[in-house]
Design brief:
heterodimer, A: 1192 residues, alpha/beta, five-stranded antiparallel sheet, 39 helices, 57% helix, 16% strand, flat, B: 344 residues, mainly alpha, two-stranded antiparallel sheet, 15 helices, 41% helix, 2% strand
Chain lengths: 1192, 344
């Protein structure tokens, strides 16, 4: 290490030397030198230029001093550059250079001073020189000039003027003298002249003086300027600088050479070192990679940690973390004691520390504790790393997880114990034999049963010890032993007819279960469990005997009953037959009556006997089910016919419904099916006093093999069966209620027999019922179908076959029944659930060219009811040919009248029977179709009710027009109030049936107006219905209106449907479904023309009028809103936004409405400037859209 | 780099040596025209032998510095109590002067000399009436620190301007550094140099449009030359490039009386007896806008000023009609250019 320091210190002078060389060699800058040289050269040039300008100015060639000033400025800037911006040029230079430069600078300052003198003096001189000839002229030739020949004239012209001119170009002492003399002469002679002349002469003399004195000064100044030492000093500075530079350059060259030499050496050495270092680095990298690899391998296998000399952990590998469950951070700096499981005594660790403390390697197995408290075993090797004093510096611990090995032995032992316990508590004898049939294990129960102690039995061949003979006592060789042989195949052997031999030689029957076990497909032995079944065998034998005798008794009894029944039937036939014959003979009334009673009693008795017979047959197992081909439909119809009489006697409708997909021909026992149906229908007739009984068959499922699962049902509208009796009724000799027996009679065997027959045919029977409302019995049968052809036509329906018919009913059951019936008649019904859908469907049919010739409407439907539907249809001439039938459930009074008014051909009341419906259809179609003259419209219907006198309070012109047009179309008279106040006044003056009140109006709003009206009504006891019209399509508005004393509520845009409904409600006084807010849902359209047209009753005239009004009015309201915003008038803003919302509502302009509504809500709470801007934008878009719209 | 290996250290030093050697071998940079050409003043006037020449129509300045200078020029924070800016006395909209005899500084203090116009001051060879500042930059110290003018100190100004983030940003952008006195001066001087008023009627006349001057004005121009006014009022600025004594041929101060220290002129600077009453010859550019006249602001009208000049400087008499023509000529020296004051 020390040598490294020395080397570093040795390198230091080398660096210093290099630095020194670099500094020295870079001391000369050729570029800078050139710059300075050039500047110095230019300075000299400018000096010359300046002199040139001075001379030019003196001679009047240069008439301004700008050139001088600019040159001076130029020089001073150059000097500034040299002096201030590049001081280094002169710092390095010698004293002489600096001194010369300083002299140069002071010379310059002197020149600048002289130049200023020159400028001012020269200006004065030039002025006088210019003026002098003028003044002479004035004196000699001006208005008041001297007379010709005046001595002064001559003096001025020939002496002063001449001399002066000469002096100006060639100044001399003589010239100056003669001028001064001349001036004196002129001054003396002027006394006799006029004042003006004197004045001119004074001026002349003044300028002459100036010219003389200034000329001298100017010339002197010029000489000083031209003789200035600046040129000399400048040259010297230049030369000195160049000399100095050359010296410096030479010196720098030397240093540069040395620096280059060093640089080359360095380059060479650097390259050499680099190669060496690269090689060394490769070697190190290789070793490191190798080490990394070894470390990785070690980490994969072992749990490694490193601790410092006092046992603090300084490193753990991932395996350590993984097994200990501690994080690296938790372990670092901690003692290994944190892993101490407490399992090892303190001496154990003491020994370990003493070993490693002495620098020796320690091996041992240690149980450690994980973070979660569980333990693990490690095989640990601790290697101390020693320092130069052989003191341990660090300890490296390498461990292997041996938890599994450690725990394996213990686990196996406990498992063995576990199985032993199981086998002991089994209650069965258990032994294990090996591949050679030698016993390897037995439990204590086996010991007990076999009489062999396990110490003796284990090791013996099993078969030859306990299984030497069969139950019959024959000897049994091991080759024939089922236990030994079968287990070889791997099958589980169960046997109850083997006997085991005890040690004392006695044997006992056993139930044996044996299972061979294999390893790698090689038989290893078998486990055999067995029980002593001596007792069980005895019980079984006794039971079998008892059952056989009981069956015999039962069979005998059934045979007897069956025989007895038959024996009774024979005389019964005689009785009935003879009674019939007797009744055909002439009899008196008394006899006839008696015989009639005999016959009916006999028939009843025969029925009972038949039942008993069947019952007995079934009980005796003698009931046979036939399998023959039959026509289900035919069988059913015939059965119905026989029952129809009974039903009609009780005025009950008996209906048969066979689903379309029920196969026509089936295989089965038609007689038995018929028997069941007769029984069920008979019961139904019996227990039903009024209503109907319906027998129906549907297909539940049909499989590929042609087996159809049919469900039959018999529904009545009788007394019903309580749920708790559902089970009982199928039991023998029972009825739902014993008391009913007295009323309805019967054996109570019918259902029992039916149920058993169904069971015999593989079906299922169950009832569904509601007490008092009727019951339905269902049964299912799976019968093979002969052919897949559907139910054949059995009704000649003539003209209605294939006729499309539209069924409209909101009730799904009704729809289903009606369509099923019509299907049966081969009609083509289409059922829909509402009037709206009906209209769509009719439109579709007309479009497809197949209009419905017949339609069947339910009257009572939510939304548009049947009558309204008829009206809509009647309006459209396309539908006029349809024959319409109405169905009503409640038969409201007046419906029939309305039907007639609407030209409805047939009117039926529900529940409707098949025959009634068919009759109805036939009747309706039979009538000649007489379309009504013209359209039957809604208000022509309404006219029959009442025309209303209405007051409309509305401030918005668009809405006014819309509402008035709609109301007048309904036939009402409408008066208009433009605000709440007007409304109240008009209400006071007139009597109205109802008031339509806009909620938001100027002057007085709808709530206030309503309140005023209600207050006055309170006094006079009147009540005028008030209907709120509002654009508040929000929750709660309705409640608000009603609270304010209004009777109804409509939201804008006014929906004609809703308006009608509300008006209807008010005028009739019944509840009509609330008008829906359809408009609230759609979003984001500029304008919805479809909707708008609906809202305006699809009237182009109305549309155009409203558009015109809107285009005129909307800008006013927008302007007013803007004004309100500017004046912070939230209420006014709100009102205008509201009005706009109402206006655009009729066009279903959702976007504009939304913005307007936002303003309405937010006005006064937040800045609506942006929203208003948006509103303006939306309004413009809406206006454009409206203008562009083509009505078609 | 970890240099604890001596070999490595040596290697590094030698590499450095190598690099420096290579560097020396290479020519550092090529010299640009800028370095050799001394084109120090981009806006140098063309050389002319005539007594004057028109103001160049366009001059080039760093627009950013001009803008910053304009801001500073109008910034009252350059005065002790934030009441006076440069523009307070050099009102741009009234010819670059305040049209007062003596300007009013902070706290209503009255100055002792008439404020010269700031327009075209960049063409003047020295600044102030007595030429005590060689450049516009040097000139700025005067009003800023004069207790009768702005009455503040540079540290105060720096502190005030440093409060302003926009100034900090401006100076950082334009001068790549902090707000400093040389930078402030540079900005203001640059702005002032940009305040030139080219294209006066007279300039148009000089450029060859003889119709630019009316007959009287053209006559005035003739008289201006023949009376010798142009001996001093020459050069592009018609003045501003030399000193001259006030009262060359008459005792101006004696006649006027009440001689003040300011009346001593350049003597105050040089203490040279010959320089007593010497003043920088003022420029006649825009003279129609810059009343009152002379260093003492003693004359309100141009005709009176002409009369005084003829009497005391030229030693001549002049008929009134000629004065009128000369004055008419002087009004044609008003240049074009919109100078709008910029309220801070």
């Amino acid at each position: 290490m020390k040598s490294n320091y020395w080397k570093s210190i040795a390198a230091l002078p080398l660096v210093c030397l290099l630095g020194f060389l670099y500094f020295k060699s870079s001391a000369v800058n050729v570029d800078k030198h050139e710059l300075v040289t050039s500047q110095l050269r230019q300075l000299r040039q400018l000096d010359a230029t300046l002199n040139q300008y001075v001379l030019q100015a003196r001679d009047g060639l240069l008439n301004n001093y700008d050139a001088l000033v600019i040159t001076q400025r130029h020089i001073s800037e150059l000097l500034y550059e040299l002096r201030v911006q590049r001081p280094d040029f002169f710092v390095v230079g010698n004293e002489l250079l600096q001194q010369k430069f300083a002299e140069y600078l002071s010379a310059r300052v002197e020149i600048d001073k002289q130049l200023n003198e020159f400028k001012s003096h020269n200006a004065v001189l030039r002025n006088s020189v210019r003026y002098f000839p003028v003044a002479v002229d004035q004196l000699l030739e001006g208005r008041d000039h001297l007379r010709d020949g005046d001595p002064l004239e001559r003096e001025v012209r020939d002496v002063l003027f001449k001399e002066m001119m000469v002096y100006q170009f060639l100044p001399s002492e003589q010239g100056r003298e003669s001028i001064l003399i001349s001036m004196r002469k002129i001054s003396q002679g002027k006394g006799r002249l006029t004042a003006t002349q004197q004045h001119v002469i004074e001026s002349l003399i003044l300028h002459a003086k100036i010219m003389v004195s200034y000329k001298e000064e100017v010339d002197q100044t010029i000489i000083q300027i031209l003789d200035s030492p600046t040129k000399r000093w400048g040259d010297e500075v230049f030369n000195l600088y160049s000399e100095q530079f050359e010296e410096a350059e030479h010196e720098a060259g030397t240093y540069q050479f040395w620096l280059m030499l060093f640089a080359l050496c360095g380059l060479f050495y650097g390259g050499f070192s680099f190669v060496r270092m690269a090689r060394a680095r490769d070697e190190i990298n290789n070793s490191l990679t190798e080490l990394e690899f070894q470390k990785f391998a070690l980490d994969q296998h072992s749990i490694v940690s490193i601790a410092d000399c006092i046992g603090r952990i300084t490193y753990v590998n991932s395996k350590f973390i993984e097994i200990s469950k501690y994080s690296s951070a938790e372990l670092m700096g901690q003692d290994h004691r944190m892993l101490n499981s407490g399992f090892h005594p303190p001496e154990f660790f003491k020994g370990m520390w003493s070993t490693i403390g002495h620098g020796q390697v320690w091996h041992g197995e240690v149980r450690n504790r994980k973070k979660d408290g569980s333990f693990y075993w490690v095989d640990s090797t601790i290697v101390p790393l020693l320092d130069e004093h052989n003191k341990p510096q660090r300890y490296v611990s390498i461990r292997t997880d041996i938890t599994e090995q450690k725990s394996l032995g213990a686990v196996m032992q406990s498992q063995r114990d576990f199985y032993e316990r199981i086998s002991e508590t089994l209650g069965e004898g258990l032994y294990v034999q090996d591949a050679n049939g030698i016993c390897t294990y037995m439990n204590s129960e086996a010991e007990r049963l076999l009489g062999w102690p396990r110490t003796e039995f284990i090791g013996r061949p099993v078969h030859n010890t306990i299984h030497t003979r069969t139950a019959a006592g024959e000897p049994l060789a091991v080759e024939d032993c089922p236990i030994s042989q079968m287990t070889l195949t791997g099958e589980r052997v169960r046997s109850e007819d083997q006997v085991f031999v005890r040690r004392d030689g006695s044997d006992f029957p056993v139930a044996v279960v044996s299972q061979g076990f294999f390893k790698d497909d090689i038989y290893q032995g078998a486990v055999v469990a067995f029980q002593n079944i001596t007792v069980r065998k005895e019980v079984e034998a006794a039971l079998r005997k008892a059952k056989e005798s009981a069956e015999e008794v039962s069979r005998l009894k059934s045979d007897f009953l069956s025989n007895m029944s038959h024996e009774i039937r024979t005389p019964m036939n005689g009785i009935i037959g003879m009674t019939d014959l007797a009744l055909d003979t002439p009899l008196n009334s008394e006899q006839r009556e008696y015989l009639g009673l005999v016959k009916s009693s006999s028939n009843a008795l025969l029925g009972i006997i038949n039942d008993i017979l069947d019952f007995s047959k079934i009980e005796a197992g003698r009931m046979d089910i036939e399998v023959i081909e039959f026509s289900l439909e035919q069988m059913l119809r015939e059965t119905m016919k026989t029952l129809a009489f009974r039903a009609h006697q009780k005025n009950l409708e008996l209906m048969l419904h066979i689903a379309q997909d029920v196969p026509e021909r089936l295989q089965g026992d038609p007689g038995r099916i018929r028997q069941v149906l007769v029984n069920l229908v008979g019961n139904a007739i019996k227990f039903t006093d009024k209503g109907e009984i319906e027998v129906s068959v549907i297909t539940l499922a049909a499989d590929m093999a042609g087996i159809a699962e049919l469900q039959f049902s018999v529904r009545d509208t009788g007394i019903g069966i309580p749920r708790e009796k559902f089970k009982v009724i199928f039991e023998s000799f029972s009825q739902a209620d014993t008391s009913t027996t007295r009323k309805y009679g019967g054996t109570g065997l019918g259902l029992t027999i039916s149920a058993q027959l169904i069971e015999l045919m593989g079906g299922r029977i169950w009832p569904e019922s509601r007490q008092g409302e009727g019951s339905t019995f269902f049964f299912t049968l799976s019968l093979p179908a002969i052919s897949g052809s559907p139910l054949a036509t059995y009704q000649s329906t003539g003209q209605i076959t294939g006729m499309p018919v539209l069924v409209v009913d909101d009730n799904a059951t009704n729809r289903f029944l009606l369509t099923e019936m019509m299907h049966n008649w081969k009609m083509e019904p289409v059922a829909v659930a509402s009037a709206a859908l009906a209209l769509d469907e009719m439109a579709r049919a007309v479009k497809a060219g197949k209009p419905y010739p017949l339609a069947l409407f339910d009257v009572r439907m939510p939304g548009m009811d049947g009558f309204e539907l008829v009206e809509s249809i009647r309006k459209n001439t396309n539908y006029a040919t349809a024959t319409i039938m109405m169905l009503t459930s409640d038969g409201q009074r007046g419906d029939a009248t309305r039907c007639r008014a609407l030209g409805i051909e047939s009117y039926l009341m529900k529940p409707i029977s098949q025959s009634e419906l068919l009759d109805g259809i036939m009747t309706a179609l039979g009538q000649p179709n007489t379309p009504q003259a013209g359209l039957i419209t809604r208000h022509s219907l309404r006219e029959s009710h009442r025309k209303l006198n209405l007051l409309l309070a509305e401030d918005n012109a668009v809405n006014q027009t819309l509402a008035i047009r709609l109301l007048e179309k309904l036939g009402h008279r409408v008066s208009l109030a433009k605000n709440g106040l007007e409304a109240v006044q008009m209400w006071q003056a007139n009597k109205f049936d109802a008031i339509l009140m806009d909620v938001d109006m100027p002057e007085m709003n709808g709530y206030e107006a309503t309140a005023a009206i209600r207050a006055q009504e309170f006094d006079n006891g009147r009540h005028t219905p008030i209907l709120a019209i509002t654009a508040h399509a929000m929750q709660g508005s309705r409640e608000e209106c009603l609270q304010a004393g209004m009777d109804g509520y409509l939201s804008k845009p006014i929906d004609p449907q809703a308006l009608w409904a509300e008006l209807d409600r008010i005028s009739i006084g019944t509840n009509v479904a609330e008008a829906s807010n359809k408009s609230a849902e759609s979003v984001g359209v500029v304008v919805d023309f479809k909707k708008a047209r609906v809202l305006m009753d699809d009237s182009r005239e109305l549309f155009d009028e409203i558009v015109k009004l809107f285009l005129e009015d909307s800008p006013k309201y927008l302007k007013a809103a803007k004004l309100a915003l500017n004046h912070d008038n939230a209420d006014e803003l709100k009102r205008n936004a509201h009005t706009i919302k109402g206006m655009v509502g009729v066009f279903a302009a959702e976007r504009t409405m939304q913005v307007a509504e936002q303003i309405e809500v937010l006005a006064g709470q937040s800045d609506c400037g942006d929203l208003l801007h948006k509103l303006e934008f939306e309004l413009m878009a809406l206006q454009d859209a409206l203008k562009a719209y083509q009505w078609s | 780099m970890n240099i604890n290996n001596p070999r490595k250290l040596l290697l590094v030093t030698l590499s450095l040596a190598m690099l420096s050697g290579t560097f020396l071998w290479w020519p550092s940079e090529t010299l640009t025209d800028k370095q050799l050409g001394y084109s120090i003043n981009n806006n140098a006037l063309p050389f002319s032998l005539a007594f004057t020449q028109p103001i160049p129509l366009s001059l080039k300045f760093d627009a950013g510095k001009v803008a910053l200078g304009r801001k500073l020029f109008h910034d009252k924070r350059l005065s002790a109590n934030n009441t006076i800016s440069c523009a307070s006395c050099h009102v741009l909209s009234t010819g670059g002067t305040d049209n007062r005899t003596h300007s009013i500084g902070i706290n209503g203090a009255e100055g002792n000399i008439n404020s010269p116009t700031v327009f075209n001051s960049g063409f003047n060879f020295v600044q102030f009436w007595d030429g005590r500042a060689a450049t516009l930059e040097d000139q700025i110290d005067g009003p800023v620190t004069n207790p009768k003018e702005m009455g503040t100190t540079w540290p105060q100004v720096l502190a005030a301007l440093n409060q302003d983030a926009t100034y900090r940003a401006d100076f950082a952008n334009l001068y790549a550094g902090k707000i400093s006195v040389p930078n402030i001066k540079d900005a203001i001087a640059t702005f002032e140099r940009s305040l030139v008023t080219p294209n006066s009627l007279f300039d148009q006349y000089l450029r060859g449009n003889k119709a630019a001057l009316s007959k009287n004005e053209a006559h005035g121009y003739q008289l201006f030359q023949s009376y010798g006014c142009s001996a001093c009022h020459q050069g592009v600025n018609l003045g501003g490039n030399m000193y001259e004594r006030m009262g060359l041929v008459g005792d101006y101060f004696g006649d006027r009386g009440n001689v003040t220290e300011a009346d001593q002129g350049r003597f105050n600077v040089t203490k040279n007896e010959n320089h007593r009453h010497h003043f920088r010859v003022p420029s006649l550019r825009n003279v129609g806008l810059t009343a009152p006249y002379f260093h003492d602001g003693s004359v309100a009208t141009l005709s009176e000023a002409v009369r005084v000049m003829v009497k005391y400087q030229l030693g001549r008499t002049i008929p009134e009609s000629e004065i009128d023509d000369i004055v008419a000529f002087l009004f044609t020296l008003t240049g074009k250019g919109e100078f709008v004051d910029y309220a801070l």
